[in-house]
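thread: overnight batch results

M.L. [08:02]
morning all. the overnight job finished for the chain we discussed friday. pasting input first so we're all looking at the same thing
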Amino acid sequence: MTTELTMKNWVEAVRPWTYPVSISPAMVALLDTVWIHPESASRWWLGAVAVLGALIFHSSGNLISDYHDYRSGIDKPGDPGSTSLTSGLFQPKQILLFGFAFLIVGIVAGLALLPYTGFGLFWTGIIGVAACLFYYLLKVRALGDLLIFIIFGPSITMGVSFVMLGYYDWTFFGVALPEVFITVNVLHANNTRDIQRDKAAGSTSFAGLLGLRMSIIYYYLLTILTYSAVAVMILLHILPVWTLLTWLTIPIAVRNCKTMLKVGTTDVSTVNTLDQGTAQLQLAFGLSMMAGLIIAII
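M.L. [08:03]
and the structure it wrote out:
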């Protein structure tokens, strides 16, 4: 298909609706660093650069993953999800080069931060680069959930706090937990929808390994862990009590769980957009957590 590409096409290609899964934990880490370590407030701008870096690496990962999913036959014309390649709008090479362009910008941004943070940031960068390049190899072996947990959880929160503090504080592993359970659920909703087509393409996601019945239970479990983790982190004084504002999003979580419960062995169309619905939950959850942190700081 020969079509003149617009700026809107290029923006949609990076799947911006998935951005809450990287921006939200990064911003929460920035704010919580200021709350736990008030002396870091003067380095907020370094944290802001780290947040931008997380977004850039996320964009790269989306594009490179889409390229490999298309080339391996996992994504086909007419399938729900990203359609940049399956619709014929983009050529595979364009998406791959676009992904590498983001990756290079992310690497340069990380290198620019090193004089202010120290060499320790290098290791977080290595994890980010490796995830962008090799995620597709792991997700077809049912390891996608684990990698997403590491990258969009402690890697981001500990990376942002490191930039602001100059050292790794393992407290921020706990900071990552409430939101990363939702992040894994975004991926899990996507993979539950795609169990049959993944199987046809010779790919096995964690949802495919579990099967539909256990996938429903897994989605519910991650949802429960999300809100339970907030309470635990408050009790441990890792998050301020104001972050209980996140519990206002429970009705959205309940709606998503009810949608997941409708999935059937022969019809998974009921969860066609559950990944987007779960990302919307993450956006609301993240905004309410940020609001709680801002109130606590003030």
